[in-house]
Amino acid sequence: MSGCIPVVFNRDVRYAFQDIFYYDEFTIFIEEDRILHGGETLTDILDNYSKYEIRLMQISLKRVAQFLQYGQYGHGEDAATIAIRSLLY
User: Which of 52, 56, 62, 75 has its CA 20 to 30 A from that of 27?
Assistant: First the structure.
């Protein structure tokens, strides 16, 4: 992951390991209605986030990135090891 903050339009989906990670720390959630019926553009909404807020999200994302990726062989835990552990316990 290169520091790109996920932008998500649906909170009604179960996200990987959401019981372990607090997605609000590294994800921007936008209600669809704000764009479809509210007259806002995606750019308008994203421009309201300060550089400081974005940087905090990037730092939080960096802390959890390895756990959301598969194939980090030999580099500690990744999404696969967390999934296996959750099945075993």
Answer: 75
pLDDT in tens, 28-75: 999 989 999 988 999 999 999 999 999 999 999 988 887 777 665 556
Label residue 2 left, alpha or beta by phi (over 0 means left) and psi (-120 to 50 means alpha): alpha
Q: Write the CB contacts of 71 (distance below 8 Å, at least 6 apart in sequence).
A: 78, 80
Identify whether 73 is part of a domain: yes
Evaluate whether residue 2 is within a structural domain: no
**What is the total count of domains within the chain?**
1
Domain containing 47 equals: 7-88
pTM value? 0.72
